[in-house]
Amino acid sequence: MVSSSAPEFPLLFSVSSVVKGVFPERSKPINAKNERRMRDVGLLLLRFALGGMFAVVLGWRHITGGPERWHGLGGAMSAIGISFWPAFWGFCGAAVEFFGGILIVLGLFFRPACGLIAFVMFVAALSHASLARAQSAVEFCIVAVALLLIGPGNWALGRYLHWRKRKDRPTRT
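Predicted structure:
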């Protein structure tokens, strides 16, 4: 004969006590201030990772590559019908990667930098013959567009400078 009730033995601990012990901050209700703070920390980490990668890994290598590398990079513009001055367009793309990455890390001119990086990555994705080779460019383009829409967060140098500028203004009476 099988019993349908749960076994009768005492629990030494409850699930809620384990959760409170492992995640003590989660035992408190999540309020808007904590949620904004965590969002800002996440955006700061994403800005440092993406901007640092663009500035150090991609941008520096491309910008110091010289006219030969710029010519190769600028050849990608033929994917959108621009085939003149490939070295100039390659230098512009390298400069956007390098200086745009620095601006993203700092949080200065954040949305224009994200827009320019998204455009560079879009052109890079179009220039690849297969989707497998364009995968990282597509991913970077999507992340740059998402950051463009979300914004830099509160821990950005641009927000601090804007706040200082507004604080120094005389108030209207």
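Summary: The longest helix spans residues 32-63.
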